[in-house]
């Protein structure tokens, strides 16, 4: 691991995160936590994914299926992905001594309660959508979107070097987002979250009645549900990588930045940033 270190007193503090960035960050974190666990609660009511508009025994369009089956040794969990079966006993299909898509510890509420799960899920879904809209307006007006989120030509030219630096954990403390940060935040904020919201609307019977063409955009209600689930998995992967990078870069400095806005930089890296 090659990380440059400097005494804290020689590392200048800069104001890196605005109040809008910090507020929306924590609202998103809370919202996504409840959306994930209530979403798995809703998924457990029908732990299968399909492509197209319809599903059922008369269609051969299953992408994913989680179920419990009987075996010589007793019930076991089986997960089928594109026709390939995997034994997932104890986690998916059969856990806690009962047939269940995702285990009780991974859902809100922990018991099978679809009605409560839907109410909580929809509340935080609208909170997420509203906060994303506020952030987008603030980011455009402040220049944060153009400066820190949308990658430019220089960012793509630096992509190879940035990948090598991250692979070696050679992390630079500057006042600017690096190329991989810009690409990941762009993917989450400009592609991932809007796609989650749009596919969620496509699955809503009320929205289907108000704007029926929304399901056609995604190739059917079942396809929208599958995309919704896939984006959820991508967001979970982003969260895991995000936490690991915070720990590698210095959790105290990173947390200070997202709580107070102030970020401590390396002097040599800051001078490079000022010249660029």
Shape annotation: globular
Structural class estimated from helices and strands? alpha+beta
How many alpha or pi helices? 11
**In the CATH hierarchy, what is the superfamily of the largest domain?**
Transmembrane di-heme cytochromes, Chain C
Measured by DSSP, the beta-strand proportion falls in 5-15%
> What are the segments in which pLDDT stays under 50 over at least 5 consecutive residues?
1-6, 270-276
Mean pLDDT: 89
> What is the CATH-assigned architecture of the largest domain?
Up-down Bundle
Topology summary:
Blueprint: E1 13-15, H1 19-44, E2 48-50, E3 62-71, E4 74-81, E5 84-87, E6 93-95, E7 98-100, H2 114-142, H3 144-149, H4 153-157, H5 159-167, H6 179-202, H7 205-210, H8 213-217, H9 221-249, H10 251-260, E8 262-264, H11 267-275
Antiparallel strand pairs: 1-8, 2-3, 3-4, 4-5, 6-7
């Amino acid at each position: 691991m090659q990380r440059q270190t400097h005494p804290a007193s020689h590392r200048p503090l800069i104001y890196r995160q605005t109040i809008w960035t910090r507020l929306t960050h924590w609202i998103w974190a809370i919202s996504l936590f409840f959306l994930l666990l209530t979403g798995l609660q809703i998924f457990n009511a029908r732990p299968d994914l399909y492509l197209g508009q319809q599903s059922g025994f008369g269609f051969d369009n299953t992408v994913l299926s989680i179920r419990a089956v009987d075996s010589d040794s007793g019930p076991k969990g089986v997960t089928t992905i594109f026709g390939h079966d995997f034994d997932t006993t104890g986690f998916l299909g059969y856990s806690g001594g009962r047939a269940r898509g995702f285990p009780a510890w991974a859902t809100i509420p922990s018991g099978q309660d679809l009605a409560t799960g839907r109410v909580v899920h929809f509340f935080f879904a609208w909170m997420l959508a509203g906060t994303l809209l506020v952030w987008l307006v603030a980011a455009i007006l402040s220049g944060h979107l153009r400066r820190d989120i949308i990658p430019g030509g220089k960012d793509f030219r630096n992509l190879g070097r940035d990948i090598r630096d991250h692979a070696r954990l050679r992390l630079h403390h500057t006042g600017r987002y690096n190329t991989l940060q810009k690409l990941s935040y762009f993917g989450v904020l400009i592609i991932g979250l809007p796609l989650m919201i749009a596919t969620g609307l496509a699955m809503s019977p009320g929205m289907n009645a108000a704007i029926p063409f929304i399901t056609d955009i995604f190739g059917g209600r079942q396809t929208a549900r599958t995309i919704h689930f896939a984006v959820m998995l991508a967001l979970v992967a982003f969260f895991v990588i995000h936490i690991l990078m915070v720990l590698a870069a210095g959790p105290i400095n990173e947390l200070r930045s997202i709580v107070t806005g102030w970020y401590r930089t390396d002097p040599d890296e800051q001078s490079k940033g000022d010249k660029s």
